[in-house]
């Protein structure tokens, strides 16, 4: 109430946020802190020029969200709160260190479907793409932004087709830049999967995107989630175009079929990986020439192995 009575006094807002932060570790106070997100973001928006206040507000929101996630709670921040965060993103879009923290916050926020919908409504995607272009070298920013993109793009009722189409070259650039960083590559593969699901590719995109996803699988074979999401992204591409299927068969760095076999044997105990591989193969056999090639590479043998390994799935 004190903060709300003195919006225009920066020192009051800063001290208020600091005082609220002192309650974060107090379990009995936590339910009340959950109701403070609007007050915190409004203070940030009102004093948007104060970087110190932005950092303190963002740190407190991160701590509240982290505690909520630890307790299995999903915080659905409303449109006004999300709008305040977007104002902060735009005002401090050049500050790499602060943006790194802010993008982590946006990633945590976007885990809630309601909050993800609100982020989409306030038009945050172009801002995310602009941040990615500017800070392509920053692995933390790339990881968080790709995770947010995935959350926003994966929704079935997506009205941002044109905006999402502009996300493809940026997301591909992130994956190319961070192929050796498994965490970032995993996040970028997920984002590419969502973009493929939304049909955001043109004819000229299928081959290079498929080749890039195969590179990600080759560079990070031990990461089960990356392998699963990479295969799901490839399956979405193949569903859209035979060009993608041929790109997998004829990849210049080696047979995509051999890579699929290798990945399956690396992750024998991962039903999610096997399922994604089966989905990919199921899409590939829709094309007769591709199916003949797969048969010549003895894919029936792999399918029989999968059937034996997961008889009840």
Automatic annotation (TrEMBL):
EC number: 2.7.11.1
InterPro entries: ARM-like, ARM-type_fold
Keyword Nucleotide-binding: yes
Single GO MF descriptor: protein serine/threonine kinase activity
Record's keyword terms, sorted: ATP-binding, Kinase, Nucleotide-binding, Serine/threonine-protein kinase, Transferase
Reactions catalysed according to its record: L-seryl-[protein] + ATP = O-phospho-L-seryl-[protein] + ADP + H(+); L-threonyl-[protein] + ATP = O-phospho-L-threonyl-[protein] + ADP + H(+)
Protein name (record): Serine/threonine kinase-like domain-containing protein STKLD1
Organism annotation: Hippolais icterina (icterine warbler)
Recorded name of the encoding gene: Stkld1_1
